[in-house]
Amino acid sequence: MDNTARFRTRAVHAGHQLDPATGAHAVPIYATSTFGYGDAARGARLFAGEEGGYFYSRLSNPTVRAFEEKLASLEGTQDAVAFASGMGAASAIALTLLKQGDEIAFIAPLYGGTEGLFEMLTRFGIGVWEAHDVDDLRERLTERTRLVWVETPTNPTLRITDLRAAANAAHAVGARLVVDNTFSTPALTRPAEFGADLVMHSATKYLGGHGDAIGGVVAGDAETILELRLHGLRHVGASLGPFEAYLFLRGMKTLPLRMDAHCAGAEYLAGALAARGDLKVFYPGLPSHPGHALAREQMGGRFGAILSLDLGDFGAAQRFLDHLQLFTQAVSLGDVESLSSHPASTTHQLLGEEVLGKHGITPGLVRLSVGIEDPEDLLEDVTRALELARRTPAAAGR
Ligand SMILES: *Cc1c(COP(=O)(O)O)cnc(C)c1O
């Protein structure tokens, strides 16, 4: 497909071609572990990398390849490589590109699993340190820092990082910038345009969009992606299955449409809730948010669909969650269905009070992943739950 086509066109078409064997219009699920060489000489050429082609699905599979091509097209990078989960993608980056004595720096906070991975890396002689913001990062970067890792907006307090400034700081010491673009998706932010070297996703979230598959992917320059495939994928082995790749391909066709609906719903909800004046609302789309102007520039005039509310104390947060009807209480985010969570007692529980306080993850904080339902219904649900949370004690046994 013509890669100069516009974003929505690429979301539909990139990575697709009529199946060469049958003409099938949808990308078939190639449920096969291995691929016949045809003859011995070709087998030798495939293994030597002298000829392109599939030979074992841990390394590459046609359905998975179509997903990789679509994502690379949407992120505007040369190539991409898929993994069995977002954490599989993150581990492959770290294990492929770092060695003993190297350092990894990140702007806190990151997704809990990523911070957990970094903690494991310290056991192998890799230094890990966190910066509060880009200025702090720039001051402390050294030649030993090989990777700089950022998320924007962050989870769950929606802080915004200036990607161009982070890329410049990383490049000044020869480090690579890795951006976890799960929250924004390429429909809003394409980090490579701001200088990011590698862009990773938990495809589980918005790329899939329907809460029915776990997967991950990394996009970047062809040489680094090949290195990730030949080491981080081949030797670590978190390979995406063709069934999941099929679901992601299908989900990504509507990514731009879904993101429009997600963002519009979140903006409507955040605006209405902030206007009440009795709640603290965290959402980059609110003019009062410290990252508002930067987010507007970096996210194409939209602000994502995750917002957090501070209800003041743990009891009120719990009662509010228990009274919501349209927001399922569950981890994950980015599904067409709205989801809700209480970070301090669930996903961020292990961090301890001091670290929670530092990141502003208070006992009253509730995170909402706004789905694509009618925003009026969502606001009615939230408003009713807020009134009930004020009036009634926690509903027993719900
Ligand atoms: C969910 C998530 C991950 C981990 O992805 P999995 O697919 O669950 O392994 C990484 N980063 C962010 C920002 C996430 O939300």
UniProtKB/TrEMBL annotation:
Cofactor dependence: pyridoxal 5'-phosphate
A biological process term (GO) from this entry: transsulfuration
Keywords: Lyase, Pyridoxal phosphate
Family matches, as CDD domains: CGS_like
A Pfam family reported for this protein in Swiss-Prot or TrEMBL: Cys_Met_Meta_PP
A cellular component term, taken from the record's GO annotations: cytoplasm
InterPro entries: Cys/Met-Metab_PyrdxlP-dep_enz, Cys_met_metab_PP, PyrdxlP-dep_Trfase, PyrdxlP-dep_Trfase_major, PyrdxlP-dep_Trfase_small
GO molecular function, one term: pyridoxal phosphate binding
N6-(pyridoxal phosphate)lysine PTM positions: 205
Family designation: Belongs to the trans-sulfuration enzymes family.
Protein name: Methionine-gamma-lyase
